[in-house]
Write a structure and sequence with these properties.
The protein is built from 14 helices and 12 strands. With 360 residues, it is of the alpha/beta class. It has helices at residues 3-6, 13-20, 24-30, 39-52, 58-65, 82-96, 112-122, 137-143, 167-180, 196-211, 227-237, 250-262, 296-308, 339-359, and strands spanning 70-75, 100-105, 126-130, 148-152, 161-165, 185-190, 215-221, 244-247, 272-277, 290-293, 319-322, 325-327.
Amino acid sequence: MTALARGKSKLTSHQLAALLGVSQSAVSRAFTPGSSISAKLRARVLSGAEKFGYQPNAIASMLATKRTNMVGIVVSEMRNPFYPVLIEKLTQELQGIGLQSLLFNVTPGARIEEQLAAIHIYDVDAIVVVSATILSERALAWASEGRRTILLNRQSNEELTTICVDNTAGSRAAVDHFHAIGRKRIGYVAGLTKTAIGVGRQGAFLTRLAECGLTLAGICSDEAYTYEAGWKAAIELLKYKPDAIQFASDILALGGIDALKARGIDVPGDLAVAGFDDIEMASWPHYSLTTYRQPIDELVAAVVARIADPTIDPAAFEHVTLPGKLIQRQSTAVPMPSSDQLCCKRRADQGESARTWNEG
């Protein structure tokens, strides 16, 4: 490190430019994501900055570019393990393009309007809403005015960009799987029943159930995506005698599996169980949950690509739906034999008994 870098005075961009023999604007562009500068010159400036101990002045950069390089992320339902993983991946990818994240956690009982008003105070460059909570569409439109806004894992009728998994395909895939393994009476455990995604998943499930000629054993919801809600709903559904239960999220399904096993019910021998999301715990041997996997990497990549593209008009919007994948595990592994199969098996057993008797 040079004497200048070791001194008390902080190295300025003009001084670094002089040391490297480049313009001050070249130094500024090297530290501005998406700016017009060659890869070779950027590498030279960044290498020189490290050598001489230069750190860009974030406040000066904000004033010059009229950008904060911050993305506001509005979240809720953090008790659902799916969301922390999604948010961690999102913040990492945003950091990769030089953007920092400011988290607005809409906790139960909080005044949502105050949370959204804070977005104006901090003047973030873009907003990503990762929330299952029912937010006022009008409030969202007000908070996002003039800013690129994306609803992630959420749907809306407003003129806002939405990016989510194909929830309809996921629900239909679950019903098709239950039908394929011979289940007849299917129960459904919903999460939040008034959100667009909640309504969509349940509607697609019921429609496909009717198309396949299967019976709806019953529907339960505690208006939450929690382990406790899944436990409670599974017990409630038992009185309808289902042979399979579809849970609207994995965390609900995990609570349901534990509740069923605690009452001596064999999963999947007596009752098959499936979820939605494919969180890490779904693959744990104790649960081995069949579920519909949300493509987290692809969802986040779609968000970051739209935030990073300076040519996109903040007022423009689109609705992006990405395919997921049904992951089959042990929670649905044992097929229920059909009545014809049972008859065949009974006749075969009787025949075997007769042969044994005669041979004896």
